[in-house]
């Protein structure tokens, strides 16, 4: 049971890390940057970093409860291991979700400011 759950947790962690562009990565433009680009970028990045505050902790808690329930189907020790592994997996998934939401916010903020940002 623990071996299967550990394999599942590792798979979730790898998938969560894939294809997630962090908010600090350079922006991709479809045209020339405007006069206020640097100032707008700094403001939008600052606002984007505030997106998802507290979400990682919530997904870790949900993952921990789920892992404990899965582990408890066998015995108490495996419930504890399941809780830890579930919390780790939940935190990783939550982190990926927050990074994606932050990046989306940044791109939309820059587009609303009139810049040709595509990603």
Could you tell me the number of beta strands? 0
Strand content is: under 5%
* Largest sheet: number of strands, sense, barrel closure: none
Stretches where pLDDT is under 50 for at least 5 consecutive residues are: none
- Please give the count of helices: 4
Radius of gyration: 19 Å
Content-based structural category = mainly alpha
Mean of residue pLDDT values: 82
- Give the helix level as a range of percent: 55-70%
Q: SSE string, helix = H, strand = E?
A: HHHH
End-to-end span in angstroms? 41 Å
Identify the overall geometry: elongated
Any idea how many domains? Answer: 1
Quick recap:
The protein is an all-alpha fold.
Plain-language structure description:
It is a single chain. The chain has one domain. It is elongated. Helix 1 packs parallel to helix 4 (76-112) and helix 3 (55-72) runs antiparallel to helix 4. 70% of the residues lie in helices and 0% in strands. The chain has helices spanning 2-17, 37-48, 55-72, 76-112. The protein contains 4 helices and no strands. It has 119 residues and is mainly alpha-helical.
């Amino acid at each position: 049971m623990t071996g299967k759950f550990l394999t599942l947790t590792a798979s979730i962690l790898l998938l969560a890390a894939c294809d997630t562009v962090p908010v600090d990565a350079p922006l991709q433009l479809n045209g020339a940057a405007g006069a206020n680009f640097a100032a707008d970028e700094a403001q939008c990045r600052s606002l984007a970093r505030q997106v998802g505050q507290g979400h990682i902790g919530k997904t870790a808690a949900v993952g921990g409860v789920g892992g404990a329930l899965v582990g408890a189907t066998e015995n108490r020790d495996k419930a504890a291991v399941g809780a830890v592994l579930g919390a780790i997996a939940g935190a990783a998934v939550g982190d990926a979700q927050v990074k994606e939401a932050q990046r989306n916010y940044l791109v939309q903020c820059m587009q609303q400011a009139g810049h040709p940002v595509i990603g």
